[in-house]
Specification:
Bound molecules: cobalamin, iron/sulfur cluster
Helix content: 40-55%
Strand content: 5-15%
Distance between the termini: 16 Å
Length: 470
């Protein structure tokens, strides 16, 4: 359960212009209720925020709405950014490529004023039978100039999120690395010459936002979901830690990259409250990790980073990729498993490798015949693979290993039985285990429940929902 920060930033950017905004979580309300809401509100623009796996569902929702209502349908977020071809899809009037903080308000202003919204920078727009493809706006340079994300609109739409003790914050935007499975290489290519990749909020601006959130809502864990939190310029951590300790003082969770886990920085952050980190391991086979996944890190670097974190008693969630586009994917996955066992993380998290549009791994998988055309991406990469494997049996073993991965890392006594267990036709059972273990690790080990009786029921409902989707 997480806030959608992109939408919240957009709402904050639009409100000062006097626009009336409603946020609806389409999946939660269902189509009929959504139609009622659209009928009542009669919006001029409906914006959809879409990751790749979500697009198909949102496209169908939009198609149904378009049959009854007259409005401009605008799609933004990662999917339209990396797969702008959707501008040709039925019912799509416009797409926003990349950041929308400045361009979406400009689009809406032009719509409101009856001006040429089809010429808005960063937008592709269908207008009177023609598609207008406008150049990208520069990246937002000064992140402090952005209004803080509008939490109210999100928490009103999903009241369960308000009670969540852990809340999301971003201290920076951008990542300069080029991991082949990630969106960033393509993103940085699209934005070449359009501003600095890495941008940081000042510690003061960040702390003020946290104080305001702490004052208004329950907040027990500050979760920085920056791509890499450990990339700050010299002197940043010292200033941040000083202010944070005085004015916020809550446990911190963030994402780090092994090559910038420095002991002096970890010591400062630990003292400020750093409690858990997520760190990409991705693959235990160094050759695959570096030549195909372009992770650009050695296993020694990863181990060294983990030892530093463990020395400071910081919980580690490792992120791993299962089912890679290599000739022997199952064997490579077993190496990843063994490498994680040697690390002993708090929780070994794994995803099935999805070659998302625009990523280098997508073109690699295409050229090497692991996919053909654009696969139909599922909403989550926790279910099954879209890659072609040598046999059904290999596919089954890989998908089962993905489900059992975290448990085996926690209980290495299971390791000798992995091959046997992965061969069994027990995917549904393993999927249930997978989500139970995931939930247990997060809510008992990493971001523990504050009150089990109050929160457990809500989480059981959430897990059942995840299971149904799987
Ligand atoms: C937090 C997060 C989540 C959260 C919330 C997702 C969300 N959409 O906000 C949760 C946990 C739900 C999540 C889940 C998943 N995620 Co995620 N997630 C992120 C993360 C780390 C940060 C998102 C964020 O808040 N960014 C900051 C805000 C400011 O940027 P933004 O959301 O992109 O929004 C801006 C623009 O895109 C644009 N915009 C966005 N929406 C709209 C709408 C309109 C109308 C307009 C005009 C503009 C616009 O304007 C916004 C402001 O500038 C990103 C990585 C990243 N750095 O972005 C991955 C990322 C979005 N996730 C990704 C993936 C793959 C997943 C999962 C599939 C993984 C999984 N575990 O199965 C699932 C999908 C689940 C599902 N329901 O489909 C990929 C998406 C790739 C793709 N092509 O879709 C990303 C890019 C990571 C990556 N390394 O590639 N994720
Ligand atoms: S370090 Fe993380 S966010 Fe940056 S490119 Fe690699 S996977 Fe993406």
């Amino acid at each position: 359960m997480h806030e959608r920060m992109g939408v919240m930033y957009l709402s904050s950017a639009l409100k000062p212009q006097g626009h009336e905004i409603r946020l609806v979580l389409a999946e939660a309300v269902g189509l009929e209720r959504l139609k009622e809401l659209v009928r009542d509100f009669a919006p001029r623009v409906i914006g959809y925020s879409a990751m790749t796996g979500e697009y198909k569902g949102l496209f169908e929702v939009n198609r149904a709405l378009k049959k009854e209502f007259d409005y401009l349908a605008v799609f933004g977020g990662p999917h339209p950014t990396f797969f702008p071809q959707i501008i040709n899809d039925e019912g799509v009037d416009a797409i926003c490529v990349g950041e929308g903080d400045l361009s979406f308000p400009e689009f809406c202003r032009r719509v409101d004023a009856g001006e040429d919204y089809w010429n808005t920078p960063s937008f592709l727009v269908n207008h009177q039978g023609k598609t207008y493809r406008n150049p990208l706006m520069h990246l937002v340079e000064d992140l402090d100039s952005l209004p803080w994300p509008d939490r109210e609109i999100m928490y009103d739409a999903d009241p369960k999120l308000v009670e969540e003790g852990h809340k999301l914050f971003f201290s920076s935007r951008g990542c300069p690395y080029r991991c082949a499975y990630c969106f960033n290489e393509k993103y940085n290519e699209i934005y070449k010459g359009k501003g600095k990749i890495m941008r940081f909020r000042t510690p003061e601006n960040l702390i003020r936002e946290m104080e305001s959130v702490k004052h208004r809502y329950p907040l027990s864990i500050v979760f920085f979901d920056d791509d890499v939190f450990s990339l700050k310029p010299k002197g940043y951590y010292e200033e941040f830690a000083r202010l944070y300790k005085q004015r916020v003082g809550l446990p911190i969770s963030c994402n780090v990259r092994a090559n910038n886990v420095r002991e002096d920085v970890i010591a400062i952050l630990r003292d400020a409250g750093l409690d858990s980190v997520a760190m990409g391991i991705e693959c235990g086979n160094e050759q695959v990790a570096n030549s195909i996944l372009k992770r650009d890190l050695s296993n020694d670097q990863l181990l060294r980073a983990c030892r530093i974190l463990q020395k400071y008693k910081i919980k580690i969630v490792t992120a791993n990729l299962i089912g890679l586009p290599v000739p022997n994917p199952y064997e490579v996955d077993l190496e990843t498993l063994d490498f994680n066992i040697s690390i002993r993380p708090t929780f070994a998290w794994s995803s099935i490798m999805f070659p998302y549009p625009g990523t280098p791994i997508e073109s690699y998988s295409l050229t090497h015949g692991y996919i053909s055309g654009q696969p139909e991406f599922l909403e989550t990469n926790k279910r099954s693979s879209v890659l072609k494997f040598s046999s059904e049996e290999e596919k089954r073993k890989i998908e089962n290993l993905h489900k059992l991965f975290g448990l085996v890392v926690e209980f290495p006594v299971l390791r000798p039985y992995v091959d046997f267990l992965c061969g069994l036709r027990l995917k549904s059972f393993y999927t249930a285990l997978f989500y139970m273990w995931y939930g247990y690790c997060y809510k008992f080990k990493i971001w523990p429940f504050e009150s089990v009786p109050r929160e457990l029921g809500k989480y059981v409902v959430y897990w059942i929902k995840l299971l149904k989707k799987s």
